[in-house]
Amino acid sequence: xxxxxxxxxxSFLKSARNELARPYGIGGIAWDGAVTNRPGARFGPRAIRxxxxxxxxxxxxxxxxxxxxxxxxxxxxxxxxxxxADMRYAMAPLVxxxxxxxxxxxxxxxxxxTLPLLQAYREWLGQPLAVVHFDAHCDTWEDxxxxxxxxxxxxxxxxxxxxxxxxxxTQIGIRSSGERAAREYVRDRGGQIFTARDLxxxxxxxxxxxxxxxxxxxxxxxxxxxxxxxxxxxxxxxSFAPGTGTPEPGGLTSTQVLTLLEELADLPFVGxxxxxxxxxxxxxxxxxxxxxxxxxxxLCGRMARSAGVTTAAPSSS
Amino acid sequence: xxxxxxxxxxSFLKSARNELARPYGIGGIAWDGAVTNRPGARFGPRAIRxxxxxxxxxxxxxxxxxxxxxxxxxxxxxxxxxxxADMRYAMAPLVxxxxxxxxxxxxxxxxxxTLPLLQAYREWLGQPLAVVHFDAHCDTWEDxxxxxxxxxxxxxxxxxxxxxxxxxxTQIGIRSSGERAAREYVRDRGGQIFTARDLxxxxxxxxxxxxxxxxxxxxxxxxxxxxxxxxxxxxxxxSFAPGTGTPEPGGLTSTQVLTLLEELADLPFVGxxxxxxxxxxxxxxxxxxxxxxxxxxxLCGRMARSAGVTTAAPSSS
Amino acid sequence: xxxxxxxxxxSFLKSARNELARPYGIGGIAWDGAVTNRPGARFGPRAIRxxxxxxxxxxxxxxxxxxxxxxxxxxxxxxxxxxxADMRYAMAPLVxxxxxxxxxxxxxxxxxxTLPLLQAYREWLGQPLAVVHFDAHCDTWEDxxxxxxxxxxxxxxxxxxxxxxxxxxTQIGIRSSGERAAREYVRDRGGQIFTARDLxxxxxxxxxxxxxxxxxxxxxxxxxxxxxxxxxxxxxxxSFAPGTGTPEPGGLTSTQVLTLLEELADLPFVGxxxxxxxxxxxxxxxxxxxxxxxxxxxLCGRMARSAGVTTAAPSSS
Amino acid sequence: xxxxxxxxxxSFLKSARNELARPYGIGGIAWDGAVTNRPGARFGPRAIRxxxxxxxxxxxxxxxxxxxxxxxxxxxxxxxxxxxADMRYAMAPLVxxxxxxxxxxxxxxxxxxTLPLLQAYREWLGQPLAVVHFDAHCDTWEDxxxxxxxxxxxxxxxxxxxxxxxxxxTQIGIRSSGERAAREYVRDRGGQIFTARDLxxxxxxxxxxxxxxxxxxxxxxxxxxxxxxxxxxxxxxxSFAPGTGTPEPGGLTSTQVLTLLEELADLPFVGxxxxxxxxxxxxxxxxxxxxxxxxxxxLCGRMARSAGVTTAAPSSS
Amino acid sequence: xxxxxxxxxxSFLKSARNELARPYGIGGIAWDGAVTNRPGARFGPRAIRxxxxxxxxxxxxxxxxxxxxxxxxxxxxxxxxxxxADMRYAMAPLVxxxxxxxxxxxxxxxxxxTLPLLQAYREWLGQPLAVVHFDAHCDTWEDxxxxxxxxxxxxxxxxxxxxxxxxxxTQIGIRSSGERAAREYVRDRGGQIFTARDLxxxxxxxxxxxxxxxxxxxxxxxxxxxxxxxxxxxxxxxSFAPGTGTPEPGGLTSTQVLTLLEELADLPFVGxxxxxxxxxxxxxxxxxxxxxxxxxxxLCGRMARSAGVTTAAPSSS
Amino acid sequence: xxxxxxxxxxSFLKSARNELARPYGIGGIAWDGAVTNRPGARFGPRAIRxxxxxxxxxxxxxxxxxxxxxxxxxxxxxxxxxxxADMRYAMAPLVxxxxxxxxxxxxxxxxxxTLPLLQAYREWLGQPLAVVHFDAHCDTWEDxxxxxxxxxxxxxxxxxxxxxxxxxxTQIGIRSSGERAAREYVRDRGGQIFTARDLxxxxxxxxxxxxxxxxxxxxxxxxxxxxxxxxxxxxxxxSFAPGTGTPEPGGLTSTQVLTLLEELADLPFVGxxxxxxxxxxxxxxxxxxxxxxxxxxxLCGRMARSAGVTTAAPSSS
Lengths: 317, 317, 317, 317, 317, 317
What we know:
6 copies of one chain form a homohexamer.
Chain A: E1 24-29, H1 44-52, E2 71-76, H2 84-101, E3 103-108, H3 114-125, E4 129-134, H4 154-160, E5 164-174, H5 180-183, H6 185-188, E6 192-195, H7 196-199, H8 204-221, E7 227-232, H9 254-263, E8 269-275, H10 286-305
Parallel strand pairs in A: 1-2, 1-3, 3-8, 4-5, 4-7, 5-6, 7-8
């Protein structure tokens, strides 16, 4: 046997595979071995790619661009699957190479993949990153039910390891239960949190303006660091994203997320991941189509608004 | 064999079948041979009828009327099913007769059925129509992947054939991808578009007042033409309507659509269709119940607000 | 045979079972023999308990408390299941005992269980109750398709039997069809109704303030009677709660309900039920997780805001 | 309100409704208030009718007849739904009339409907009946978890009430757990049992010959009493019939049941019921289509083989 | 827009795409516009390919070969989708080319694709073909509900057009209803039929020997014509293949089909199609995995047993 | 946080928990971190327990015993979940204790748990074991896609580590693809294999007699070693067990497995595991109910036939 059956054999937007000269790239990290509840996110990369095929000839209605010709799909990383530590060890050199070749969007997989991604960007860029973090959960646990790392510990680890600019970490959509120290972890270290509760009844560019403004101001005040976007699909309410591992009622709507992605598009993101899409619990591709739309919007936003920011010049961020 | 197994054997609201003297009628067009992605809308008429049975003794909470005694179900049209052209050819005389017998609501079926419906109304009424068009997609393609007509070309064809009053065509909920020429087709010809993005954060009569006002003003400014309502269920976000063929994340909520149907009720609609309900992708009747509620609200609105407008007097529109 | 297979063998939040000294208790009433459409709510108690396990170590993000140590699960009541009358007869003495032992939250079951619950509270407290009633349906029918009582008659019966303070009955989320006399039943007797239509576009504490204020003022004006909360999960739009027996499109969002539960938390509730969760129609635990979150929020609100109100001192309400 | 939403508005095989002169009739008994586990069989009559539409122009491949023109659908009986006793009381006079009008096939509903059906046939025919009983469960409990009657007690009750000829009661497919007295109840009273275990590896006319022969011989030896067929769909293995309330692994295949229905067709059945089809747990109509095929095979067998036996001449049995 | 969203972007067994030198090829015909009941077979090619990925490193346990290196996937044919006639017109030249390049296995699509496939083979080979036809339905209708051709008419058309050797047409698994003339059409013209009823209780090489022997003898007696295999997945019982358009209870088991495919492997097949896999009605990939296993078994059988028979030498058959 | 949300809070057959004096015990190993395709078996212990509740008052129809009073449920083992090696390290001492307290049945979890179980039994009993192994897959890979151990390597590892008596290893139901060395691994080392193909058409005690006889004879010829039963639910055909991670068409029926469990019951088994039940892919509890029935049958068989063989006297095996 040479490869796991769950690895994908198709490409995002049916873009050409492994075209090294294209500026944007897709990479799948089909790993779900660090979830605390429902597994299945290993099928996320495959399902998001399949869902993207509805968009494969599309031009974005807001940004008026189409990403196909600038995009290549680099497939799913070949990774071991019985140990988080071994997976991350194998993942590191692969990521190191890919982020130097393309502006990458990573399709997870569970949220434990974001820590090694941040480590790679931190090392490559030579500075800590601003992070926009969509999620139902704060992911600031100090351990994973007794183990050192899981899919709910990466924010804590990123702060501990100096991967992020604390004032430029923004969490959006948080509503998970937990002790105050965990819930306020980011705010206690200088970052900001917009809980799902804070955003109830807000939508559209006007409704979301305070969020966008706050992110922008902090970024400017902190010396305009490079930004990273991590989007856990469970930021959405379960009615919009049933196909995920740890759903939490009372979440964001898909239009709230789309509004933020559109309004934040001119910030200098250097990469994105979209994680925790777990197709076995999905229905009629609700979740994977939402994820595909978010990734597509991010890519179109990059191309439309940030022409000067490419992976070849990260310091220009 | 005499009839396809998918034709319905029950009636909307359990209303009496084939009562020619009743002013309102239901007709099913169980055709889905022109869809670009997921087929199944042939089961739409059956599923919407079944879903309507929860309403069969109901009195509408907003309009305070009940449509059962004024309504008859004329069943599903007998149609060939392997060719769009042949289907439309067979459909035309049947529709011609029915719209003269009743104020009809048509249950689709995919959106390719709206073109021959508009042709029939245009011919009968002797003038082009105002159209209120709920949809995720603009349906203005100039071809169907190389074929002349499909479920995404009818708006283009209707404009080309002079079936509509351009200034009185209003699209609501649009969010599909595509080139600018297609996306702005209706606006470029004098019509108006309220994208799903435009409506984010708007709901209730106050929130929707600008939309309602704009439709009304254009109608008055254009000589008060008869109006037609076409409602593609994919105007709803997929979380509200998973059972459809080409879902698009970021759509309307069911309360947004209900608000508009209620607020527009005093306009002189001469007919309605509700299309693209594809039950194989539905769950727990979410989509068919939404469709049944929309059709029921339309019918109750007709009866409550437009007592003077019946199929016997189309010119009074 | 000794017990029905559908009775639950697990406990809400994995709390200890049958700890008589704990102030809060959970009781299941796994009965769905009085529904007019889709049965299955007998599995509601089991599904809500299973769904609660995602919260079993949680601390509420708004109230900053955790209910586990003050809570006990008393299991599902042993009840006959072929006759509503016999079921209620068997239920009465069991409820009588339990409400004197704990501040109870009841997991239904269909809404026909609320009448005997109100009877028990009325008798115990010696006075009629204020009621906050979340529902799509007004439940004011005078009969159940020819039978005297069902899941849609209990409001009428409660008024007739003097179980409630009419001015302090508030219905929230109503949108069902029916004759005016039924729809306005509560208002005609002095109560108030916030239909789903009334709440379109309102969310968050500010958006919901008029509702909260109105409930509070009536309660104060009526001598501050003890309050009871009955939450039919179909108050939610079917996209948020597909797993219910009589879904109605156009309903509340889960954040609207959460907002109201949080904002009303300092009122002197003496008990709650959450009914009509019908798991056979659910998907990916959407409905049971929403129900679990609502019950958990209620319990945390009780503990956080109403320290002085316990089951030992109902008159202090 | 006048009727429950779950009552069917279509007819078996799309046959004409309420044609009193036709010899064969279909009646629905949409009741599931006496089940011990998963409810939902109230939707059985609707689902079996819908499933039958695939057969509506069919001619039976084994019997070479088509039943449509001799068949009428009498709809679902109007019945109260919160009490088994009240339901049976309302059901009795309706059944009494129908069995004198047509050779009826009854679509359940749960198995508690068979007792009043047998009572009606016993009274009409003036003698006890032979019964062929397909089921996973012996249905010989002496009570229903403390109540006198349920869906698992009717065999015991039928014996106690003298409704059956003990030697001519044959149970097929039995595999449920229970004490020996219940499992062997029928055999202890002179009847015979072919458990699912007994039939493992047997199929086709040759394989089933001993079963058929044994039934025939007992019937002849007992004076050729009229026969009744009651088919609980859970006689099938759950893989063939997931949509039922109390599935039991290790059951019959659909070809085993078809073989027996075909081979027994020349016996003088006076009626049949098909019960416990619970559509909420079904997938892709597996269960309702199996049920429709069984009912259709029974009807075709009647018409092909038993021309002399009609409802007008029950004594000829 | 350039291509329908439902076309597949992955390959069978992850084999290399468009390798013209490889002897075996896969072609998808994603068309379902001629079905009489549930559409969805357009997703069949995609689903069968995805399901095959579990086998992508496999060596067949019976034939001890692996097809990957001799196989190429030629993708889905680009076809119009609103007219059967237009689709067949576009399909013909594509098929003509492909069958000369590879020994093809065709993934449908509905069964209306088999007629033009047989036409292409007939023309290329210069003689009529023997056909082994697995199906629940005889597909011998003389029209398609009034239209000349559909998915149930191709056998009749093939006989009329002289595409087949009548004595060498074998139907296996037939159980559909219909008039005698249709059911016996093939037998009346000299062919043979093994109904599902005929095969009850038969399995394994010994049990299936008479079927295999009869096919072989007729083939030898008729001058050893080239053979074609068409496998409608609804030959399987719906419990094994719920994901199909016109399921029929009482069908074959997957082991019966596997046995026949294995035992017939040394006959000189020149091509195969596997049709009517309709993924929207499938569960957990039951149907698409069965289809993938059948195609894989056919391919392995070809390679193991028929080394001398390649597409370059059809006359050697 | 103290425990994963997926751990079960109910018990098999609703038996009492943690009763150390009872001879039989249930233990859950909710681990699925070593699967090659679809994860989800971590929910297996919970689902099998829930499914068992239909049997909770049952007496086995073949063995005429009921296990409740001799059985205790020891819950799910507390285990780390991001590393197979760490999980096995934590599992070992827990298993060591439990097998000395009770005759255990283990609910998996994926098949990687069987290796440490065999290690524990081997150490405790002081001798290698006979193994009856139901499975679609031979599980004899020498590595797990590059890692040393997974869910498909345990048979190889068990042979290498001397945990089994080679002549007494019997594989039943095997049909997976793979190279000859893997497929014949067990036979090459002296064991025996009954593939699913070998068993086609065999069922019932007579049909299965050769299998039973062969197992018994080898056991006697090898000095009657203690036996272990490992049952991978994917031995069943996917139609009987869709809820599993690596389904393979062409598998056993549930009656074939039940027959073997019944016929083998008098052999001296010292323990059993039932693995690879993956509820996210299940429908209507088909798979978990089959698993529950198998475990229940094993337990009843133990109690009925092997009164002298208890965990207190392993050497008597």
